[in-house]
Write a structure and sequence with these properties.
heterodimer; A: alpha/beta; four-stranded antiparallel beta sheet; 22% strand; B: MetI-like fold; 11 helices
């Protein structure tokens, strides 16, 4: 089986056991994952904690290889870390000895072709990073250290770091989980605007159903041990979406529907 | 006097009070200066023999710094190897702990056989006693990297080396400077102990010869000088630590 041309991410019957022992016991972290994501699509994966969402992320980025099945991203077979993705986690994990600007520049010091040109083109890259920081509302904070910023601002900087090398795919592992409700909604809009402008692929792992429905084109519900996709729901709400939409009946209906799937998983 | 001021001056106040009590006791019971000299007697002898003491102190100082310099180089390299490889960690760590448990003074006679009386044994004893905390701290700093941070970089195709240089090393700098403060005081202990038996110069030698000549005031002067040198170096590294790794002390900046 080959990846269809219009699918950016393509999972074919992917299984993963973390080690041989678990494999022998037939204990898989994720089972039989099939997933096709179109170029530029924003997908969200929701499910109870411990259902293998983070495992899924590791598979997509190539940090883990599947035990069975195959994964293609961007037409390429995934068998090692892809350099075309950026990642952000619940913890901003910025380096405290670097300024916000230098933190954002970090990927450019590692990924080619930027890496070898870093010294000559530093000014250009800095300008780019400052632009990016400004676009998420961090203009003027470039020279501050991360620990001088609030939690929401740190998370914005962390997302900038994930995007600075213009990845084709952005992976977010519960990026807003540690923020208060208002900051979280602000960041939803920030992410929405970045995505609308740049149209990279997004895979958002979250346990916040409203978040997934507000942001994503398609929401996948994952079940707990074994980790499987049980529901695929396309979100047909019109774009651009405004925060107001989260108070409309159409929106809450979808959230309800997804919630009922999760409830059903819990019982079994 | 407010609390902050009191806190800053408290070591000095304690020192003065201790000296006063000491002086008072020596006078009240007219303790012989051959048994336990009073602070005033020690001060007097320090001034009297200041030239001799300074020469011995200088010797002890540079010998200690030489040993300490070797300890930094070896300690950092070894710590880097142990901290960056699980296998090296498993292999080296237990042996190093065993080695560290050995009293370093016991090495002095062996070092004398190898290098003769003089600077050789002193430098090496200072080195042997002070590299361990540096190694352990560098290794700990490298081995306790947050896995998420590592993932962020590995997704970009970062090699182990990149992760170590970009994150591991800077991250272990506060550990490193913290260990220097401990190591420098240990290095002075090593030099002094070694000089007591295996040198004709240095504060350790001065202590022994003053003791055998019943010059107790001079012997105490020697102790004071080593203490002052060690404390000065400690404060120096403490200052460097605060000024190079301010990010690690951010909690104290907010207050």
């Amino acid at each position: 089986m080959t990846a269809a041309a219009d699918n950016f991410v393509d999972f074919q019957n992917v299984w993963l056991a973390y080690n041989d022992e678990l494999l022998a016991q037939n204990h898989f972290a994720v089972e039989d994952i099939n997933l096709q994501v179109k170029q530029g699509e924003f997908i969200a994966i929701v499910g109870p904690s411990g259902c293998g969402k983070s495992t899924f992320m590791k598979l997509t980025t190539g940090l883990r290889r599947p035990t069975k099945g195959s994964i293609h991203v961007g037409g390429q077979m995934v068998d090692g870390p892809l350099k075309i993705s950026g990642m952000a986690f619940q913890a901003p994990s910025l380096l405290p000895w670097r300024t916000t600007l230098d933190n954002v520049l970090l990927p450019l010091e590692i990924v080619e072709p930027y890496r070898s040109q870093f010294k000559e083109k530093r000014a250009e890259y800095e300008a780019r990073a400052i632009d990016l920081l400004r676009s998420v509302g961090l203009g003027g904070y470039e020279r501050q250290f991360p620990w001088q910023l609030s939690g929401g601002m740190q998370q914005r900087a962390s997302i900038c770091r994930a995007l600075i090398h213009e990845p084709k795919m952005l992976l977010l592992d519960e990026p807003f989980g540690a923020l208060d409700a208002f900051t979280r909604e602000e960041l939803w809009c920030t992410l929405r605007d970045l995505w609308t402008e740049r149209r990279f692929n997004v895979i958002l792992v979250t346990h916040d159903l409203r978040e997934s429905v507000f942001l994503a084109d398609t929401v996948y519900v994952m079940s707990k041990s074994p980790g499987r996709f049980v529901v695929r729901r396309e979100i047909d709400l019109p774009r651009p979406r405004d925060l107001e939409i989260t108070y409309t009946p159409a929106f809450t209906d979808i959230v309800h529907e997804l919630r009922s799937h999760i409830g059903a998983i819990r019982k079994t | 006097m407010n609390n902050k001021k009191l806190e800053r001056w408290s070591p000095l106040i304690l020192l003065v009070v201790t000296l006063l009590i000491w002086e008072g006791l020596c006078r009240a019971f007219s303790v012989s200066e051959f048994i336990f000299p009073s602070p005033s007697r020690i001060a007097q002898q320090t001034v009297e023999y200041s030239g001799v003491i300074a020469a011995h102190a200088w010797r002890t100082y540079w010998v200690t710094m030489a040993g300490f310099g070797i300890a930094i180089v070896v300690g950092v390299l070894l710590g880097f190897v142990i901290g960056s490889s699980r296998l090296a960690y498993a292999a080296v760590y237990p042996l190093m702990t065993a080695f560290n448990a050995l009293p370093k003074a016991a090495f002095v006679p062996i070092l004398v056989v190898w290098f003769g009386i003089g600077i050789g044994p002193a430098i090496l004893t200072a080195f042997l006693i002070s590299f361990f905390p540096i190694t352990v701290n560098i290794a700990t700093g490298l081995a306790t990297l947050e896995p998420e941070l590592e993932d962020v970089l590995r997704v970009l195709g970062a090699k182990r080396w990149d992760v170590l240089v970009k994150v591991g090393l800077p991250r272990s700098m506060p550990y490193f400077f913290g260990s220097l403060k401990v190591a420098i005081t240990l290095a002075f202990v090593g030099t002094t102990v070694s000089e007591m038996t295996a040198a004709n110069e240095g504060i350790g030698y001065l202590l022994i010869s003053a003791g055998s000549a019943m010059q107790m005031g001079l012997a105490f002067s020697g102790l004071v000088v080593v203490g002052v040198m060690a404390m000065a170096m400690y404060e120096l590294f403490s200052y460097i630590e605060k000024n190079t790794t301010a990010w690690a002390h951010r909690g104290s900046q907010n207050t």
